[in-house]
Amino acid sequence: MEEEWDEDGPDVVKRFMYVNRKAPYGTVYALEMLEKVLIAAAFEQDVHLVFMDDGVYQLKKGQDTKAVNMKNFSPTFRALEGYEVEKLYAEKESLEARGLTADDLVVPVEVISSKELSELMAKQEVILTA
Amino acid sequence: MLLHTVNKSPFERNTLESCLRVAAEGAAVLLIEDGVYGALDNTAVSELVKKHMGNLKFYVLGPDIEARGLGDQGLIEGIESVDYGGFVDLVEKHSATQSWM
Q: Which of A51, A52, A59, A60 to mutate to test the interface with B (most CBs of B within 10 A)?
């Protein structure tokens, strides 16, 4: 089967939502999710990145993993802009429960309520959560 | 006297809650890995730890706090930060270690 994909970009663009709910480092979910996001970005899809529950901790400023001998992947979120992944959202309720605000995060995000998240989620064609 | 370690986020699992329900007065609780989120002040779960501050001695693993960028968030008053050497000292000082996973 031959795929047509000319210089103008992909023929099919879908609305993808990635829902990040896990803290970084304690498990590999957060890092694996970031890999999946980069794949969708490579295929020039309409990517929406949501951070909720412990997922908001992925974006916490000031991460320094030297002493635990792991890769600090938080700077990668700042590079997403270069892949035209610019729709980042954090759930207000999750930030508040953790005493965090948007100022504590490494990238600008749109802070949205659970209700707004619900509406945004309903508009998606593909939703992936970890 | 036991050393209890907790490595799960209190926002996601009830691991810390179970540990605190079972830990005997005078025991030590060391928060490690994603468990360190339980050491932060001004969160929805801070009160759970504060309620037990009088009966238990709390420690947190510093390198795990640093990895997660939590140095500026403020620990609950009375929680002592230790490094890996301090972790070993705690294990050595207690009769046994219970790892709440």
A: A60
